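Retro notes, item 3 of 5
We never archived the inputs for the cobalamin complex last cycle. Fixing that now. Sequence and ligand:
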Amino acid sequence: MNILLVYPEFPDTFWSFKHALKFIRKRASMPPLGLLTVAAMLPVEWRKRLVDANVTKLADADLAWADYVFVSAMTVQRESARQIIARCKAAGLPVVAGGPLFMGEYEQFPTVDHFVLNEAELTLPPFLADLERGCAQRVYATTEFADIQQTPTLLWELADMRHYASMGIQFSRGCPYNCDFCNVTALFGHRPRTKTSQQIITELDGLYRLGWRGSVFFVDDNLIGNKKCLKTELLPALIAWRKGKSGMSFHTEVSINLADDEELLQLMAEAGFDQVFIGIETPDEDSLAECSKSQNKNRDLVANVKRIQRAGLQVQAGFIVGFDNDQPSIFQRQIDFIQQCGIATAMVGLLQAPPGTKLYERLKREGRLVEEMSGDNVDGTTNIIPAMNLDTLREGYKRIMNHIYAPGPYYERVKTFLREYKAPQVTYPLNFEYILAFFRSVLRLGIIGQERFHYWQLVVWTLFRRPNLFPLAIELSIYGHHFRKVCELHVV
Ligand code: B12
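Structure as it came back at the time:
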């Protein structure tokens, strides 16, 4: 049996990093872990091939080779997924689909032969058993959550690593919190389920053996969901694993209460983490209460962010405007807050209600849902009728984005961050790609770009004030370029 695993193309979005990846000659941020995991669960004797449409074109020869096509996608990949499915069907191939897009709206894909929904650890085995008996059904779903200690090691060898900026690893699934707009608990549950440290070490060893030295994204919904397990098992194992190795810094997603735990901060930095994404959402206490984000309430968020930065972890964060409680003053407050924190990568979105969330249910009852979600929460669209006038909200949103990514405030923010940031423990040997990226940045940002004045100012400032953070300053300059391009596309 020949199985073609296909990952549809991402549009040009905030998280696609398309305009930044060009500087380091990469085509995508990360390989599709879902498909690589599914591939590892298929019978060993089946032949498997991965086509990630973000790095290579789906060729007719691939379709001619395949007996079955397995597609995975997020909502934001909807259009590309539709086109790929149509091509496969035109070629007479049976299509099996799974992943977040199909979990939310599989009824919208009438030509797909089989949906293997939720976690494949639970739904793939019955599908495969039925397939073998010749009685495969159309939908396989479950309300249970998988034991990920049984999840096999990903088939990394299917991915052409040269084209990716980072690799991914998953230690846990699920999050203990209750933010009403977030669908993670609906998808993966409240109780964080963890793999064993040994599974993670085996995965890291596999990557290292394949020659990977770049960054690794721990794609957990909230890595610190189970602090005890992290402190006593995973982090000590990572610290021991790291000895004598070079490169491979880690980044991940956490909740803001990381700032409360100095020991955890130190352990994470020592284990090689140098960046965390945090859902900060808003500096407004009433809006935090409205969305049940209790873990962010009653704290000095700016001080918390700085504490994390000082421990050697860059903070990237998500922000939301459009809560019922939001007043028009929220736009300037968000700008001031983001600037003060020195959060260069600030993902600001309009409040959206994903199906399966408490917010979705509430707004449905109130008759305030309007259209299907675009799946990209940084494109200035929303599927809800906000309490604030929609035009005021959109205008305010544009004001935030156009301000924080304009060269002046953006570069100022980078400096605020670099002033605070403790240089990370993992360092990288000088690498040709990065030297080339620097020269490209000189050309694109320092000579052609509208930001040239700010770029050179940062270069000089960093060389004098934080010389060991120079590569990071260049990286963030390149990110700024990407964010401005995306703003031009979606926000203007
Ligand atoms: C890593 C990640 C990313 C990476 C993606 C890199 C890549 N190439 O995959 C980056 C950082 C780029 C990213 C960006 C975005 N992401 Co994201 N991301 C994740 C995250 C944290 C982990 C995904 C992952 O790798 N999991 C590990 C693998 C093993 O699990 P899995 O993919 O779920 O696969 C399992 C099952 O779903 C199933 N399965 C999956 N596919 C298939 C296919 C078949 C055929 C079968 C049988 C089974 C199957 O089996 C697998 C094993 O159990 C998830 C949260 C989460 N916990 O899933 C969000 C998540 C997928 N992202 C999400 C979103 C919304 C986005 C963004 C739009 C913005 C944002 N808010 O983050 C952008 C869009 C990307 C873009 N370029 O525009 C949503 C998707 C919701 C949806 N309905 O689409 C999620 C679920 C988070 C959330 N709750 O909001 N993301």
